[in-house]
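Sample pair:
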Amino acid sequence: MKADQSSGRREFLSTSAKVAAACTLFGTVSGIASAQNQPTMSSDITRITDSHYYLDDVLLETGFNFRDTTVIGTKTALQTVEIDQGKIVAILPNKQHANHQLNAYNAQGKLMLPAFRDMHIHLDKTFYGGPWQAPQSREGKTIMDMITLEQKLLPELQPFTEERANALITLIQSHGSTIARSHCNIEPVSGLKNLETLQKVLNEHQQDLTCEIVAFPQHGLLLSKSEPLMREAMQAGAHYVGGLDPTNVDGAMEKSLDTMFQIALDYNKGVDIHLHETSPAGFAAIEYMIKTVNENPSLRGKVTISHAFALATLSPEQAEKTARQLAEQQITIASTVPIGTLHMPLKILNNNGVFVMTGTDSVIDHWSPFGLGDMLEKANLYAQLYTRPDELALSRALAIATGNILPLDTKGQQIWPTKGDDASFVLVDASCSAEAVARISPRHASFHKGKLAYGTMQKSIA
């Protein structure tokens, strides 16, 4: 394909992706298989206190329909899921209850999918939950200008941190995410205040959300002399050491990355760095991180590069080589699935065994107003930009939203849910994964380890 044609296709996909995302705001409706012979049900309830119960009329994917070797549809069946102590303990024929003393709730024929994971969000600084406020114009502004602006804004935002973090959590749970990773500002303006408040909020949500915290030196690890604060954050319970553009912000790539990795090694923590740089320095930083993890095997499986925009500057051959190196060192990529002219090699990364996850980033703040907090929307964008619109490809695209957990493998064998899995899932108004991804189908309820995190259920009455 010629370069101008490829560019035009990306612009078309970007436009259509935005339209599809907008559909979520209007509650796109999709047809689903309805449950037959439903019992009379009670009024809506918003809390399930039972530790052991049945969930009836759950629509589960059971296999693919094939024409020769081509997947042309998805098989489903209504079944009962037994949940005990936050785990799935049995998948049963629909409404077959061995223990009639247990309460039963009704999923009303909604499709059960693995819980979504918002693996890059900033819960500690947001306009969300407050009055509408568009970001200031960034025309002609550098990242240093944005850091200066943020230093002014942070004290104004801090009185609302708790209230707005709770609002963001409710938002992502309403879209099916009950697992998250939040970056939290650690720098001289905030000190540890944001971390302390975020930990308080997350402690209150421990029954309905699992969330890791990244200590994020937003104003530059070296530039803002934040190393002592970062070390305090590790001692205070942050899970990951963050970082930011080691060349453009810190002005010393190797020293910045070495400092970040040394903190992680000293406290046995993971690493999750924001890397926006698209210059050759950005790719040099990726190569340096691969080298560092190779030299420190204890870091394997514990390093995430967020954004990693430099990968979009590589040729397909360079991207393949780098993907293999990232996979070998078990380095994860967290991408927001950007739309527009920046085309990330996410499919190449996936095909070479790199764990690619996604997240909201900003919902609405001084950086961006466009985040919806919806990982199914991210799966939809991934499908539009990187795959083909067929049943199999659409079903596979769901993986970016679920941490690579899918109901069916590529041969159509049911691999989720199984006995012993966490009872963390989302009930979706769709007939199958492919439809859910393509239509960004409405969410009905979100569960986290057996607890109803968002939505309403009805108690089955025989």
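The longest strand covers residues 52-67.
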